[in-house]
Amino acid sequence: MDRRVDRKGCDNGSGVHSAKGRDLQEFTFIGQSPAFESVLETVEAIACRKCSVIISGETGVGKEMVARHIHLRGERAENVFVPVDCTTLTGQLFESQLFGHVKGAFTGAVDDTLGFFRAADGGTIFLDEIGEIPLELQAKLLRVLQEERVVPLGATKSYPINVRVVCASNQDLQQMVRDGEFRADLYYRLNVVSVEVPPLRERKEDILLLAGYFLRNQVEFYGEPEKQLGEDICELLENYSWPGNVRELANAMERAYVLSEGSAIKTAALPFEIIISEQKAYPKHELPTLDEVKRRIITETLEFTGGRKLKAAEILGVERRKLNRLIEKLNISMTQKKTDA
Mean per-residue pLDDT for 275-288? Predict the structure, then answer.
């Protein structure tokens, strides 16, 4: 199933799924692989419910994007979506940021504040990296979720809240419960529905679709002409394991766009780790040595820059003097190449 979905259910077969929130800005959610479609089907099934959700997956897979899609496809789409980085919540700051505080509650509290939960009233609060909340503070969060009321720090009055809670973690929360690092009662309160976002290496059909999308974003951002991916680069992208997932792909496409001159993305403009992952020219029983890989990458980069070593050093992320030493050590010929200062 490959379609375009918006708030009106439009469908044009692009693999780019979109929705609109109250700010009328389009939100895109891209993919057409079976793994991606499975996630999308779950999102569509739960979007209009109020149940809590835990989104799991590796770093960079797009857990916040899934959370935003849940929000924008549901009945709360016209209201606010509040993302919270739980890695920053400790001690007094935890209560103050989540539940608010009253003037004078602590040194520096010069005004009353709402806190994230009251600010998200009527909408969705997204607790990113929920597993990072210290164990001793999890009970306070559980009480708020159970009672649907918050008491600001330093106050005696409680305030009702109507908030949809969506959480995310790249840790195994079930294992954390078994290890005594995450409260079981909080876990079961949050884990009404779980959504696991697969890593990019398990949704290879989406790689080129995403790469094209990110390149088009660069065209709009820089106001420059489009640049195309050649077949050799497409094969590199599809065969790479993408440990940083979608975030890594987005960064790789921006780098490739800004470093490629002309209308085509150059192989040498890709991040070094993507280029050296390509081993199709070598049989499995004849893997290249590290020096052979270095020689190949440096040679291709120098060809790309027309022999301009300063530019090549910039692309490779090394100092000019180190590049000169590598050229000499690896016996790379500079014949018929420019040797700029």
Answer: 59
